[in-house]
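Figure 2 data, in text form.
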Amino acid sequence: MRAVALDREMGNRFDLARALTHLGDTHRSTGVLDAARHVWAEALAILEDLHHLEAAEVRAKLESLPVSSPGTSPGPLLVTVR
């Protein structure tokens, strides 16, 4: 979170997008999907504005998230092992 704050303060948009992407990865791995969606969407907007190739990777991460209903949090993903 410190990197995000510093990059915002300094106006370093590319590094901000990368920090947000990594923060989204952390949220995703801990099951906080709404937070992951939020920061990945911000990262994607920045990367698209910069016409950066990493936008496709972040877009794919967003598309991999399950669709949540309004006002609900999908919670952690459950995996069934057979």
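Caption note: Residues 74-80 have pLDDT under 50 and may be disordered.
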